[in-house]
Amino acid sequence: MTAPVPSEVTAAILAAVTRTRFEDLPAATVRHAKQRITDIVGCVIGGADTAGSPELRSLLVARGGRPGATVLPGGERLPTAPAAFANAIAARGNDFGVLIPYIGTTPVWSHISESTVPAALAMAESTGASGRELITALVLGDDLAARLTAGATYVPGAGWDSPGLVNKFGVAAIAGRLLGLDELRLRDAFGIVLHQLGGTFQAIDAGAHTFKLAQGLAARDGIEAAELAAHGWTGSPDPFFGPNGYIDMYCDGVDLDVLADGLGAVFHGDATFKPYPSCRFTHSAIDCALEISARLREAGADARQIGRIHLDVAPMHVDSPLDQPFAPGRNPQGHAIFSLRYAAASALLRGRATLAEYTEEAVGDPAVAALADRVSITGGRPTATPEAATLTVGLRDGTSLTAGRDTATGNPLSSPLSAARIEAKFRANWCFTGMLEPARADDALELLGRLDEVDDLAELTAILVRP
């Protein structure tokens, strides 16, 4: 078989985004896309009031502009790109959204949907697209972002944060598709994106609001790139493989087979639905802590009898932001969702890991801080299993309890969340914000479940907005 040629891969990407029809999408692809949309819509609603989101909305509303799309669930009307920006920031607000596509059995470490779904919803609303057109555009954008992440030897550990890179190309594909750009104009949009790329893990180190900024900027900038292209702006002839293009500037190399194999016929998208509102790499520790907490309760004991806690994880997490001492600063929630010590201590003490455990009040509980200080962390789990964790809890009477996981709940290969649990998560997000009547969650789920049959998305917006 002839090896792909870079220019031919670019041409194939442009053709796939502009020519693929809804009828070309496998039924499973459509079903998974609707689940991703449902999950992220819930996260937008649940994250609407997380630290930084109200301030951003206030700023964007004050700027004004011609209304194009709706901010959820408050109902503010903003130009399309700012509306997508606000909703994407909310989607990542609790770090609760679906993530990590799989190509075969290989995970693609990325946060895609928290940018692409809000952007697709905003673009579909502003262009009057149907549910089928929305789903088709989303599938194509998600697939491109997943392929760019998996196909390039881009290493997140180098300090780049992938939402600020590949997500912008994915959003530009979505926006370009819904704007009806031809292949030449879509290439221009990708060339414009090339000049917008950025993103750093530094915010995660600091627990700052900006850990979610790249997620929102990707939604905003990808739309603006497509809009500029639609208005005649030109871009680079080959933004992916040309000199000083994406691969040249941000990657050490590229596997063209990953980018090209099945393009336009096989579609990849986020597949790991999170059960807990925190960094995915804390989830195995939470699973273990919840198991031990239940065993303590069964034995008539509780967290007050815990003397020491030892957590063994993959080496990559030692001396990483996840391994910092538990010391909430100016943004306590932003620190807690990336803290292995908080994840283990909170789940052990409370026997649950819900949105309520990651509020500023919950994070500031002195009892959790005292328990988190007893957590020691080592990196003895295999490097090849970055989700793995083993938690050992030593009680004051000298006994100990141990629980271990190779993969966390929600892993699509070993323990995927059921459709019922994804819906339950949606309801939890819906109720957490307190802005929407709980009974309307069922109406939203019903409509999202048949999104491919909906011709006018105003029906969905009306349900998702506070009366």
UniProtKB/TrEMBL annotation:
UniProt domain MmgE/PrpD C-terminal: residue ranges: 276-430
SUPFAM superfamilies cross-referenced by the UniProt entry: 2-methylcitrate dehydratase PrpD
Give the coiled coil ranges.
Answer: none
Please list the residue ranges annotated as the MmgE/PrpD N-terminal domain: 16-257
By sequence similarity, the record places it as follows: Belongs to the PrpD family.
Which named protein is this? MmgE/PrpD family protein
Question: What species does this protein belong to?
Answer: Streptomyces prasinus
